[in-house]
Amino acid sequence: MSRLAPLCLSAFSTVAAAAAPAPPPDAGIDGLMQRYDGRVPGAAVLVLKDGQPVFRRGYGLAVVEDGTPVSPATNFRLASVSKQFTAAAVLLLAEDGKLSIDDPLKKWLPGLPAVADAMTLRHLLSHTSGLLDYEDLMDPADTRQVHDIDVLHLLEKENRTYFAPGSDYRYSNSGYALLALVVGKASGSDFASFLRQRIFLPLGMDATVAHQDGVDEVASRAYGYSGIDGHWQRTDQSTTSAVLGDGGIYSSLDDLARWDAALYDERLLRRASLRLAFSPATKTPEPDVPYYGFGWRINGDALWHSGESIGFRNVILRYPKQKLTVIVLTNRNDPEPYPLALEIARRWQEAKR
Predict the structure, then answer these.
(1) Model confidence at 300: pLDDT above 50
(2) What pLDDT is attached to residue 22?
(3) Which residues in 38-76 are b (16+ Cβ under 10 Å) and which e?
(4) C-alpha angle 77-80-86 in degrees, rounded to nearest 5
(5) Beta bridge pairs of residue 228
(6) Catalytically annotated residues
(7) SS3 at position 226
C-alpha cells in the first residue's frame, strides 16, 4: 500500500488559505480497500473536502508483472468517466461560437443517413439521440481496434434508430464517439489535441491524455487485468479501447483533483456552461440516475459518473454543495467501485453531522 504525503493543491484550490479539514476519527478506508492491497491489481483513492485532499492513497499494483505500485500519479484508463471531458470540449466550442449544442448533427457529419436528420448535438450529449450502439454493429470476427471515425462509418450504413431523437433515453457510447469527431471538425484540430491544448494543459493536467497508440505515451500507466480461473490476467485492451470520445482518456488522482477544482469556478468553463453540464437534460430509468446532464449523472445533490472497460472500473462522485468529492480508480474488471465511493463519502458526511 502506498502512503504518501498530501498533495498540495494551493495553486488551484478554491479555498485559499483554508486549513485542510481533518478526516473522520476512524475513516476505515484501508479496511474497505483490503481486496485491492498487496500483489494484485490495485486502486487509487482520493477524497477532496473544501478544496483540499484529506485522503490520497494508492493500493496494490499498477503493473502486476513487474510489481509497479499504484500511486496518486498513476494514470488509469478512465473509460466512460471520459465523457465529461468530451462534453466540456463541446461546451468550450459553443462558448467560442464555433458551434451550437442545438446544431443538427448532420451539419458536422453529413454522411449520416436520413434517420439522423432530426438529431442535434444536444441529443448526443444527453443520450437522447436513439443512435444504435456501435458495439453491436462491429464484426465479431474482426479483431482490429475501431476508432471514432470507424464508429461513424458503421453508423453511416444504418438508416434506423432505437427511437425518434429526443423521445427517450438510452445510454450511448456511439453518441460520444461522434461528438469527438464534431469537436475535431469544429475546432480545426483533432479531438486529442483539442483536449490537451484547451483543457489539460491550462488546468495543469500535464500527464492526462486521450491516448492514441503509436502517437503518444501514457506516463506512469496502469494496465488493466481480469480475474480468470483464479488468476489475474492482463486484459488491458479490447477492440473498442481506441475509441476516444466515449472512454479513451487516461488520468490520475492528482490530475483529476485539478479537474475537480475547475468545476467550482470559471477558470475553464463559464457558469452558464457548467449549469448546462450539471442540470437535468433528461430523465433516465437507471439506478441512482434519475437524471442525466451533459457527461454527468445526477442524483439529488450528487453528480457522478462511472467508467467501465476491459480491465478498468472507475468512479468520480461529487457533492458540490458539500464541497466533497470521492474518486476511485481501479485497474481490474471487478468490482464496480461506485458503492465503495458512496461508503467513503458517507464517512465524511456523517462526521459533519
Answers:
(1) yes
(2) 54
(3) eebbbbbbbbbbebbbbbbbbbbbbbbeeebebbbbbbb
(4) 100
(5) 231
(6) 80
(7) strand
Closest CA to 119 of 111, 131, 137, 135: 131
| CA 108 vs CA 16, 97, 174, 191: distances in Å | 43, 15, 15, 14
C-alpha cell recorded at residue 219: 506516463
- What are φ and ψ of residue 3, in 5° steps? -115, 110
Residue 320 reports pLDDT greater than 50: yes
HSE-up of residue 185 (Cα within 13 Å, Cβ side): 14
- CB neighbourhood size of 88 (10 A): 24
pLDDT at 319 over 60: yes
The residue-averaged pLDDT of 275-291 equals: 98
Average pLDDT, the chain: 93
For the chain, helix, strand, coil in percent to 5 are: 30, 20, 50
Query: Residue 37, class by beta-carbon neighbours within 10 Å (0-12 exposed, 13-18 middle, 19+ buried)?
Result: middle
pTM: 0.93
**What pLDDT score was predicted for residue 322?**
97
